[in-house]
Amino acid sequence: AIVGTRSNTDYGKTFTEALVKDLAAEGVVVVSGLAFGIDAIAHKASIKNGIPTIGVVGHGLNKIYPSQHAGLAKEMIAAGGGLLSEFFHNIKPDKHNFPLRNRIVAGMSDATILIETAVKGGSMITAKLADGYNRDVFAVPGRTTDKVSAGCNHLIKYNKAILLTDAAELLDVMGWKEKKTTPKKQRELFIELSPEEETVFKLLQAKEAAHIDEINAVSALSSSTVAAAILNLELQGIVQSQPGKMYKLA
Prior knowledge:
Blueprint: E1 2-4, H1 10-23, E2 30-32, H2 38-48, E3 53-56, H3 70-78, E4 82-84, H4 97-107, E5 111-115, H5 122-132, E6 136-139, H6 150-157, E7 162-163, H7 167-174, H8 195-205, E8 210-211, H9 212-219, H10 223-235, E9 239-242, E10 246-249
Parallel strand pairs: 1-5, 2-3, 3-4, 5-6, 6-7
Antiparallel strand pairs: 8-10, 9-10
Helix pairs in contact: 1-2, 4-5, 8-10
């Protein structure tokens, strides 16, 4: 998801357009809220670069809000994207609907990127929700004197978001970089594992990947024991961490 202020600066517009352009070859889908400002810029840049883009709206789908984006919405659909709403037909775009739709934006996205937002901006709600869903949150830093960057700077300062300066950083953190297909070395047989490590290993062996909470619940081990076992398995090259606190066998 790419979200941000309705009152963006040229800096925010330029960064958004460059970010989306650099992600065009990575097979991503861009999610936003069809609002003025950063949302609309992200949608338009996605269409321009051939990326499907989804607008999550805070009203029924019988109309488009803001009405100025009716044409943009049609372009999004024609380009392979679409609109999404949890609200019934004819529900008006009331103010309280938009914080509600933010949870869908956050929940359906692997990562949420904030590009220019005030400390009390609606995008801060999306960031908090995304963090609560164990999604990765990124924020683009801005000048300390810019009110529209105060929210992003705040999240970075208090370690609530990962500082983002370009698409390469996003791809690296999310593990989306195209990996060279080099033959895997056969895992050493008969590695001596502790009972706890073996429990985690067998659990991951039965699944493609598992969330840390699932490992804790299914293994019946304490969270500290699971954390220690996973760390040891990572050090031995047996387990790999994935975005969103997911783990899988290497």
